[in-house]
Amino acid sequence: MTARGLDVAKKQKKKSKTKQPKPTMAERADKHELYQGSVQVPEADVEIFENIFMKLRGRRPLTMREDFCGTAFLSCTWVASHPKRRAVGVDLDRPTLDWGEAHNVAKLTPAQRKRLELVEGNVLDGLGTKCELTCALNFSYSVFKTRELLRKYFVSVRECLTDDGVFLTELYGGTEAIVALEEERKCKGFVYVWEQAKYNPITHETLCYIHYRFKDGSKLERAFTYDWRLWTIPELRELLEEAGFSKVEVWWENVDEAGEGNGEYTPTESEENQESWLVYVVAQR
Amino acid sequence: MVKPTGRRSAAAARFDRHAYYERAVQDPVNDAAMLAKLFRRYRNRQPMRLREDFCGTAVLSAHWVKAREGRTAVGVDLDEATLDWGRRHHLRGLDSRVQLRQENVLDGKGAKVDIGCAMNFSYSVFKTRDALRRYFEVARSTLVEDGVFVLDAWGGWGAMKAECERKKVGDFYYEWEQVRFDPLTNEILCHIHFEIAGGIRIDRAFTYDWRLWSVQELRELLLEAGFSAVHALWEKTDDDGEDTGVFYEPKRIDNQEKWWTFIVAER
Fold this sequence. Notes:
The structure holds 2 protein chains of 2 kinds.
Chain A: H1 3-15, H2 25-28, H3 31-38, H4 42-57, E1 63-67, H5 73-80, E2 86-91, H6 94-103, H7 110-114, E3 116-120, E4 131-136, H8 147-159, E5 161-173, E6 181-187, E7 190-200, E8 205-213, E9 219-229, H9 233-242, E10 247-255, E11 261-268, E12 277-284
Parallel strand pairs in A: 1-2, 1-4, 2-3, 4-5
Antiparallel strand pairs in A: 5-12, 6-7, 7-8, 8-9, 10-11, 10-12
Helix pairs in contact in A: 4-5
Chain B: H1 8-14, H2 17-25, H3 28-43, E1 49-53, H4 59-67, E2 72-77, H5 80-89, E3 98-102, E4 113-118, H6 129-141, E5 143-155, E6 163-169, E7 172-182, E8 187-196, E9 200-211, H7 215-224, E10 229-232, E11 234-237, E12 243-248, E13 259-266
Parallel strand pairs in B: 1-2, 1-4, 2-3, 4-5
Antiparallel strand pairs in B: 5-13, 6-7, 7-8, 8-9, 10-13, 11-12
Helix pairs in contact in B: 3-4
C-alpha cells in the first residue's frame, strides 16, 4: 500500500468506529475454495481415469502424477479412493501448495497422507517418483506457447511414466472457443464466470479470466488469469508423437438420445465440429 | 460432375467451369499488383520473375507479365487439361514470357524467381507437417538469394463448421460450401457449386479436401523450412470497418467470423 493509501485506510478505520462496514461476500471469499467448488470434480476425474486406464491396460491404476496440481485436490481424492493408491502432485506455487496442505491434505488420514508426495517444482524438471498415470488437467500445459517448450514438457511427462504408463490431458475447442465471450454458471453460493477476453487468430493466444460474483452484489474479478496458447487436437497429437509416445488417442464424450453429453468417453478418429467441446487426449508411453 | 441428361443438360455440358471460377474467385490484376507491392516492401526493388505454384489456368502469371515489361513467370500445375485451357485463353502471344510446367510443385524445377506464390490455399492439400514442410523447402529452393514467398491463409470460427455461402456474380450464382470440418484432424471438405442462367445447377464444379492450417502453424513450418523471417499480415479496415486493401503486420488482432490474409516469407 502506498503512503497515501495508508492515510486513507487510517481515516476509514476512525470513521468505522461509529459504523463498522460488513465485509462483502467477495472480501470474505477464498479463491481456492471457490475454484474447487466451481471447476473441479475430482471424484469424476478419478472415475474417468480409472475407466480409460482399465480399457488400455486391463488393470486398475494405483499411482498417479498430477502436474500443475495447485491445491492437490485431485491427488488427495486419488489417495483416498483406494488404500493402495499413491499420488505425486507437482506445482510451482508454494502458497497454493500450502493452501492444499491446510485444506485438502489435512482432511486425509495419516495413512493416506503417507501415500501422497507433494513437490514444489517445475513440471519440466521431471521431479518425483515414476507413476503409471500422469495427468495435466484444466488445460494448464497451455502456458507452453511454443512447440519446442510443449514438446519438452511432453518428453518430461513420458520420462516420468512407468514402462506401460499413460498420460492423460484435456483440451477444449470448437467455434466458441475462439471468440471473446463471457459465460456464467450458478454454483453453490456464488456465480462462476468464465471470460475469454482476447483471442488472437495470428498466434492462437487466448487470454481468459475466472471471476466470481456473489448474492450481495460483490465481485471477485480476475480471481484467476490464464495467458495461453489454444492448441488444437492435431497439434497435440503431433507433439506427443514427436515426444516419443507410441500411441495417441482422442476420447470424445458420448451423447444420449437428446444429444447431451453423458460423461462417458470413447476413442474416436473423426467428429463434426461443435460450438464447444472438451476431449481427453490419451497418450501411451 | 455434370451428367448430360436432356435439354437442361445441354447448357450444363457446355458449361466451362474455369471461366466461371475465374470470374467468381480470382482477381489476377489486383493479385499481381499486391505481390509486387509486398515484394518491394521487404526488398526495395522491382520483382521481375514470378513462380505461381498450383497455377491452374495461370491467369495470375499472364497478368503478372502483362503488367510490366520484362517480367517473366513460371506456372506449375499437375493438371495438363487445366494448363491447356490457360494456354488457349490467357497465354496467346505470351509464350516467351510465361513458362508452364506440368509437374508436381514438390519437384521444384524451372528457373529461379524473385517471388514465389501459392494462392487460394492450394498448399492445404498437404495435410501433414512433414509434407507441408517439404513443400516449403522446395518453394524456398526455387527462389533467388533475396527471394520472397507469398501465400494466403484463411480462418475464423465461420471457417470451422458446415455452411454454404451464396453470392451473385454477374449473371450466375457462386456457392462456397464447407461440408465438414473435423476438429480431430482440422481437415475440411469444401465444394464450389454454380447456378447458371435458367436455374441450371453445376454441383461440385470444384472439390477441396484440405487441412485448414492456422497462421501460427504456417509460420512455424516456414521457419522450419529455412525461411529467415515470416510476416503474418492483416488487412487494415477503415472507420466503418470496411476492408481497405492495405495489409500491415499487426501485434495483436481480434478474431473474426471469417478472414483471409497474406503470409510473406523471406528466403
